[in-house]
Each structure stands twice: as structure tokens, then as C-alpha cells.
Target: UDP-glucose 4-epimerase
Amino acid sequence: MEQKSILVTGGAGYIGSHTVLQLLLGGYRAVIVDNLDNSSQIAVERVQKLAGEYGPNLSFHQIDLRDKPALEQLFVTTKFEAVIHFAGLKAVGESVQKPLMYYDNNLIGTIVLLEVMAAHGCKKLVFSSSATVYGWPKEVPCTEEFPLSATNPYGRTKLFIEEICRDIYQSDSEWKIILLRYFNPVGAHPSGDIGEDPRGIPNNLMPFVQQVAVGRRPALTVFGTDYSTADGTGVRDYIHVVDLADGHISALNKLSDPSVGCEVYNLGTGKGTSVLEMVAAFEKASGKKIPLVLAGRRPGDAEVVYASTDKAAHELTWKAKYGIDEMCRDQWNWASKNPYGYESPDSTA
Ligand code: NAD
Ligand code: UDP
Model:
């Protein structure tokens, strides 16, 4: 059987690199398009190595999605079965400071991609949306039918792209689109060779904890200790990045189902964990003490967010396998093997 080629935008990044590995191991060819704005080509090389005999089925192109002629050229030379679209900027705080940069990169990048896909008859898409589109949910677990809202420009790019996808499906029912709303991806591949390596000061909890553990930062600031949760700290649905990557393979399989139009699925575990519970699990996995500074709430943060997993379980036959102990074990394995991510210490500020 001929191997199917999948275009993976943002495939050098955190979630993309783990997904590309699962694609290769699943017998697909993967073509990465990434401008390396927030990633390193070393991640791509490591994925290739981890894939063993399947490594040669990976190719990488350093292209910005907004470069339409370069993207066109790729579609001329390769027939893609589907596209998994991760590429985008994702720092909430930065999006508030630089909204136009976020709208330009995330929206224009997506529109160019969709135009080129349509022009070449490739109408199957899996898109990285986010639980951020649930805003501050009135109740939990969040089901896919909940009302949508956004509290910052990053979140609005996810909302707008979801709406664009619904519109293009309305206009042309040949499109098959799956919008995946990720909850909180953490952890790393169990090899410890690929993982999350954010540029600058991490926004998210676990990359920050990891940098405290390896001595790059003195303490974790806990944002909010007065929420109406068991220990007063915010609760989220943390999901192992390898589980998340597998969810994309299930979504790809689902795209072959003739009944699929434009569908949305949560990818989470359905379990809520507080900041202090997560820190305790990481301390146990790493044997490191994480000093804490207790602080006020971070503006825009919701209190409790976790997923309803029923729809993905029934329709994608996908369910997360790993719990927070495995997430923290693998996060620490990656961090201790690569305390400065893909860079050497002297090349980082
Ligand atoms: P990441 O920054 O590690 O990966 C994104 C990749 O896209 C990077 O490699 C970056 O260089 C590339 N990129 C950005 N703009 C580009 C452009 N114009 N052209 C080409 N490449 C470009 O982020 P991630 O955590 O792997 O997230 C992947 C996707 O999932 C993003 O769309 C993000 O918004 C979404 N998401 C992430 C989380 C999370 O917590 N990590 C949660 C929900 C949704
Ligand atoms: N958080 C924290 N300190 C940090 C980063 C995050 O206390 O340095 C908290 C945050 O308030 C939230 C949880 O950890 O309750 C998860 O935050 P993250 O930014 O990782 O995910 P999101 O809020 O986008 O779901």
C-alpha cells in the first residue's frame, strides 16, 4: 500500500514534534513546514532518529506559512492526504501586547494554508484549537457544545479560525475538518530526547516548574491561592503530550469517515489537578524541592477547567492513557537530560 503523506505545519514545535513521531511510527510520511520561530531543527533531527527505520519518511522545510509561493511549491511536488495545522504563536501575554502580530501570524498563516490546500484539492484538515475557547466555564466538565468566548487576542485567533473552518465547510462540503480543543499538554516523550523548550520566560506552569527544578529560576510563583478549590489554587486538565499526539492519529483516521464534516473534539483526560497537586507530583518524580512564592491571581485566568472526554472516546475511539505521575516522570526525564532544552547553556540568555 502506498504511504500517505501528511503535511504538518509547526511540526518542529512541542506538540508537533511528538505528533510527527507517532505519524512516522504509524507508517505515514510526514512533511514538516516550520519557520523555526519558536523551535529548533534539532527537534526534527531527534524525531528522525527516534523513528528508526521510519526516519527517512520525514522531511523538513523551513518555510513561513504566510509565504504562499513557497507553500504552493510544496503542494505542486507532493500530494498530501491531509494537513495537521499546529503552526501559530501561542503566548497569551505577548498576544495582549502585540495583537496585530498574533492576528497576522495565526490568521493570515491559516488563510494562506487553506487557500493553497483548496487550490490543490487537499481538503482534509486537523486544527489545533484550545480549551481557551471555553473562557471561564460556568460549569465543568466542558462539553464541546459549551458557549465559546475569548479573553485575549491569542484565544480570539483560535475562535476565529474555528469559525473560518465552519464557514469553508458550509461553502464546500468536500472539506473534512477536525478541530481539536487541547486542554493542558505537559510531559515529554519517554526517551527524554524531545520535549517542550519555550523561548524566554515560560508562561505555562510545567515549563516553569521544570526550569526551577534544574536551577534556571529560583522559585515558582503560584498565581492565586484564594480560588474556591480544595487547596485554593487553580485547577486544570493536564494531558500527556504523547496521549495528545495519539489523539491526532485518531483524528486523521476519522477524516476517512464519510460522515465527517466539520467536527470538534476535546482532547483532555477529564480529570482536574490543582497547581499545588501538580507541584507535589513533580517534586515526587524529580526528588527536587520547588520553592514557591504565593501571589495574586493572574488576570484572565479561569478557576477550574477540565474536559468532558465522552465525545472523543465514542467518536474517535481515543482516550488518554497517562496520569500526572507519568507526565511528571517524563517531564523530569526530558528536563534533566536537556536542562537548557535543545540549546547549550552558553547560547541562551
Ligand atoms: P510551539 O510554539 O512549540 O509550536 C508551534 C510551531 O509553529 C513552532 O515550531 C513555530 O516555530 C511554528 N510557527 C509559528 N508560526 C509559524 C508560521 N507563520 N509559519 C511556520 N511555522 C510557524 O507550540 P505548541 O505548544 O507545540 O502548540 C502547537 C499548537 O497547539 C499551537 O497552534 C498552539 O496554539 C496550540 N495549543 C497549544 C497548547 C499548549 O499549551 N502547548 C494548548 C492549546 C493549543
Ligand atoms: N500557574 C501558576 N504559575 C505559573 C504559571 C501558571 O500558578 O508560573 C497556574 C495558572 O494560574 C493556572 C495553572 O497554573 O491555574 C495552569 O496555567 P497554564 O498557564 O499552564 O495554563 P492555562 O491557564 O492556560 O490553562
